[in-house]
Amino acid sequence: MPFASHVKLGVNIDHIATLRQARKESEPDPVAAARVCKAAGADMIVAHLRKDRRHIQDQDLFRLCELKGETHLELAADPEMVAIALKAKPSSVCLVPETQREVTTLGGLDLSDPRDRRLESAVKRLRKAGIEVSLFVGPDPVSIRRAKALGADTVELCTTVYAQAREKKKVAAELETLALAGYLAHELGLGLHAGHALGYHNARAVARLPHMACLNVGFSIVARAVFVGLRTAVGEMKQLIS
Description:
Distance between the termini: 17 Å
Number of strands: 8
Shape: globular
CATH superfamily: Aldolase class I
Helix content: 40-55%
Number of helices: 11
Strand order of the largest sheet: 1-2-3-4-5-6-7-8
Order of helices and strands: EHHEHEHEHEHEHHEHEHH
Largest sheet: 8 strands, parallel, barrel
């Protein structure tokens, strides 16, 4: 049966740290938030350690990796950042594109240049250390095949275009694109995750796609938590995708 019996929920806690960094205080503590998320049903804690350290800090990462359960680290394929990951030893790492002035990640990795050895080197270093590696990619065959060639264990499909679609036909078309990408990933032996711009109004359909193993959701959960509390916000999302 191609449909996943249990779709994991990865909760991204970056924007808990964003709030803290706005005042450079010690609260709210992302690690305390991670504990709440786990208690509310999160299967995995997700954090993006950016080169500019705009939210998650190095000490946050090391403390998160000391918690029981899965810690999933997002970072650029930069030798310095990979070295930090190797020291912290998260359960898994997702390599993502990153530019200094972006407000948030703009799309999947550009895997069109086979001469670019940075990703290949990062994947090899991480996997050698026993860390599972995923690549954040667009839902297109070229990127998925390239991810396989680079040695990734998993692909995380960028769902931005789907999430931005408004007309029913466009939404359906983007879901079909994601589904086809998922079939290809499965055929190639890659794990299948998805994320970015997913929320309470659009995550369920992605969770129901064939072979989907995990959805990573952050901003919408933290935004919802302002009104209902973090435990409730995580629990609602977990129930929604289950």
